[in-house]
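FW: tagging you since you asked about this chain on Friday. Here's the raw sequence from the shared folder, copied in full. Didn't touch anything.
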Amino acid sequence: MLQDSASTPPAMFQVPTNFKRFTVVIGIQITIISVQIFILAFGYGFLGVVAYLQYLAPPDSVCELMRSYPAEVTMIVTLIATMLSVTAATLFTLSVKQALRHRMWKPISLIHLSAGVALAQGSHILELRYIGLTVLTLFILGMLRLLTAGWITLLTPAYFMWPVQLNGSEIDITGSAFANLLRQEFLANGLTDIQDSSFEILDIGGMLSGVTAAGFTFGLPGTFDFNGAKYNVSTQGVVPTIEEFSGSDGVPNANGTRLGFSGGNVTVNTGVVPGLLSSVHIPQGFSRNYSMSQQGLTANVSCRAIDSNQTQYLWDTNNSYLIYANAAASNDSIAGLRLWNISTNCGTNSLTTYEYVTTVDANGNTSSSGSGFLPSVVCQGPMNMNQSYTNFTILTQGFYKYEFLKASICDVVPLLTTVRADYSNEQISSEVTSSTPFRPENAELLSFIASVARFQSINSQGLTSSTIGDTLYSIYSSTTIGSINNNLNDTQVYIELEDYWRGVVEFSATFLRSGFMATGSFPNNDFPNNLSSPVTGTMFISTIGWTRWAKKSPTYLLATIPLTIVAILTLTCALYSILEALREKHGWGEHHRTHHFDVSNTLHLIMAFAAGSLALEHFGEEGIAYNEGVMVQLEEDGVKKKFVRVLKEEPV
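HL: got it, structure written out here
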């Protein structure tokens, strides 16, 4: 006895059983609340970060792994989503079980008790007589089942294009400042007149640009290369403003810039526009495409046959004579040469004459099947107007092999344009978004373009054939069955010719821009302000990650509905349990609960009903309906708990 008294602490030092139980209950509920809030905060925090940043991608090395192992990524995301869902669902059932255990100390109908037990076990009830409870339990069960789908929707990365705004500048060839600079370059190179034969500054690029543009109309390959850059069909007068697409990285020599340009690195100063989130890492991505708004140049070209009544052109192709003949020449040598003086009236009250030389036999005759002659004369300015800065005219005619092209006139109207240039698949494709005609300050620019056309028209004609003529002949014959002369379609021929000259005009602008933007063309490669034109656009980076939802498709927001509803229900039940635990601790409302009771444990329920000797009706339909409305209350008798019937029903 003395030993027992000595081992038992005084009453003042004993911790009340009620306090121990209260501490455990509060601890459980605080844990439930804390974990549930953490899970909900993680979901909304992740969603908020994506919404704020708009685009979120892991490091490039991780992106490469995600692209290489898509099945593994799906598995990891599913495991994480399942873990979060199971945790949230478990917290919900625990909170319901604790709340219902407190609720059973008050009168409750058996049907409501049944619904609570079903929720505590993660299930539902199906009772048409209690449609409200049925819908409620089914709804909550549905939210629990949708948790995994919601988390997978939030966490699964997807391929997307990350847009990044760009800006920069390029040479402005449209204003008076460039006109003055171009005039100085003309004088420096001795190019004082459009007819000056020394204007031979272009290589085969102009010719190929016309061939490519004409052939694309009839389905032939339409990629044109210049200075290492690839253009779709034609250059559209643009110069690359993106470093990866700028082509050659060679440094031009001292005389290899401006009008003397013969290839080399072109200055590109396009960069990322600083924004509010400039500190966000922009990934390298799997690939990059660009869409830029920049200057271009094109032309409206209209070709037609010269009517016999249109004598104002004074188109004369009859002035030719034999300048060399050698009857003893072998088959491999030239037997004769014919000099052609092709002239026309360019509206200046004087004839404009070009000279051509072709091969003939010793008698001055030409083979109509093997040889071809296609002369052209370029007239700067319209032939029926007093101004000379808006357009120029090309007169042309085919002979022998090219006789399908009658005497024709092409009106060429260059246009200053703004284009949307798309840089993708190592190729530049451009589309005109706006255009304006030439103005008086563009007279020098028109002179340059017309000079390029003149250079091409003269140098494309060789001793036996013409590049322009061969282009028209080969492209048309490749799409025609039988003889070209027997199946001639004038409209198609003129479409080819128009596309050819349009391609040449567009290339001339690209050549000009490239020359003046070549490395070394300006000190420190900086364009003067009066020669600078802004360039704006967007870089699209292909990567994998997460993006802010579209306004018309708030998928992420819908995915958070199950998470939010389950969290609210869990927190409500946990707070209810805390309130009831406080009542028990302080003895409010005669609450003194000392023994554990698990409402989700079927054995506990059977024991409580058996201890209370609760008499219920039979299993018939009427009996079950009656039993569902019976009010019961859990009571405690020492270590025994029992359900007793409450005769007077109280509000549930």
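FW: The chain has a mean pLDDT of 82.
HL: agreed, and Residues 150 and 544 are 20 Å apart (CA to CA).
FW: great, closing this out.
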